[in-house]
Amino acid sequence: MALQRSLKALVVVLSVLIVGGVEQASAPSAPWTPAFRAANADAPVEGFPAYTTAQVRERTTVDMPDDFPGYQIHLMYVLPKDGADGQLDTNGAITNVVAATQRWFEGQTEGRRLRFDTYQGAPDITFFRMSRTEAEIKPHLIGILDQIELELLHAGFNHPHKIYAVVYGALARVANYGFCGLGNLPPKSLGAVASLYPLNCPSNPFSPDDSGGWELTLAHEIIHALGFVAECAPNYYTAHVKDDPRDLMYENQLKPASRGIRQEILDVGRDDYYGHTNPGCLDLAKSVFLDPVAPDAGPPPLWPILELPAHDCQVGETLRPRESKIPVVIEFVNTTARRMRIYKINEDGSRELTATLEPYRPEIAPWRVRARQETFATHVWQVTVAGGECVGFYVAGETTHRVVLR
């Protein structure tokens, strides 16, 4: 984040309160070199920062075929149902930010790069309109990150190997706090979203180089979504560091993003979150979201998160948990308009209610529609409508799972 960073930490913690295993990384892909050209882009919607250079691209509403396999960061331009369209996905604004972020990251890491999802050599940016209007979203802006994530999950944007970097094109201010971005923080949160809020920080420019502010916010929030800063870091402070204001992940609400990323340093002293020597502490240098992929690279904590398929209710009545010592996590997410109940099935076939999920409606706080359950592999769970109708049975596997009720 940039402006009001301390609020971001508070919001992330609030999201955590209510609201895996390691896989072999794929071979690194060939470096992507962005090609820019001047363009007479359409006039920006009032309130959006101006920019001067653009790479024009066609709009797409789906995740296009990937240029390379493995873990990657997928870009999205998200608007409320009635949100004004600033065309940031097609006029080059987001593409320029990605390119500037990559240039800075390469300079900080001796040539390594973030694995942004690309299609035919250019950043793959998906356009998405939410089902709710700005007025419907506004009552729970403190949970704007949850609201965006819930809409994406409902629409099927939950690839187990992708983080979603979202540019949200509407105002998301909470009281007088103008946070520029928010990010999920695994393992406390099972979300996979890093979000930017341009209208919250209108003084930050979209720039064709690294002199703007959004490459700073993009890098900052993506690093949060990858699990940093971990509590084991020696200079840890509320998911940030506290030792040097030049650090990209420094916690300081007065540090403006508008100064751009060129003055930022990735882990000053290399002692907290990148290339450190702290045994057992999460290290960004060993993340599968970086190219070239390190030999001992791994995903964020509790990843991958796989969507768990349902068993037919008739078959489910015969399912019983088996003895297991493999602890896992299942998150149940309700994106329907009906209240749902979550039951744990015991060895004798009896069941115990563990959570009630409220319907996904504008008046309901977004964290009340999801529940995280600590369980073991092979344990059985049932979901019913509040009235008792069976929705399905779910058997925990040996990794983190999510059940999205649609």
TrEMBL record:
Entry keywords, A to Z: Signal
Q: Which residues, by range, are in coiled-coil regions?
A: none
In the UniProt record, the signal sequence range is 1-24
Superkingdom to which the source organism belongs:
Bacteria
Q: What is this protein called?
A: von Hippel-Lindau disease tumour suppressor beta domain-containing protein
Source organism per UniProt: Acetithermum autotrophicum
